[in-house]
Amino acid sequence: MKTIQSFRDLAVWQRSIELSVQIYALTRSFPKEEIFGLTNQLRRASVSISSNIAEGHSRLTKGEFINFLSIARGSNAEVRSQLILARHLKFGEESLIAQCEALATEISRMLNALIPSLKSQPQKPNS
What we know:
The longest helix has 27 residues, at 62-88. The protein is built from four helices and no strands. By secondary structure, the chain is an all-alpha fold.
């Protein structure tokens, strides 16, 4: 098993970067009047996922990392909800929405597995 030395080594962070790239591609075709609405909301929420994973991994304690993973999980839920809204409003290409939803679902599963895994690890000194 590969040692995690950086947040960049985390598969969930890598997938969340991929999700943000896909969200940006999807929202390019949203109506221009949505630039400060759903376009901005989706982009910010998707970027928040990878940002919180990275920040949490860089914190000093496992508890802080878990907290930031929880925030990332909330941002991922925002993205999933906003993708449903985009579909109902008929914003964006259906195939891109489906790709984003699949990535968000995968990220959700990964976070939902990582958090309890970290909780079950013994606490290290000074953590």
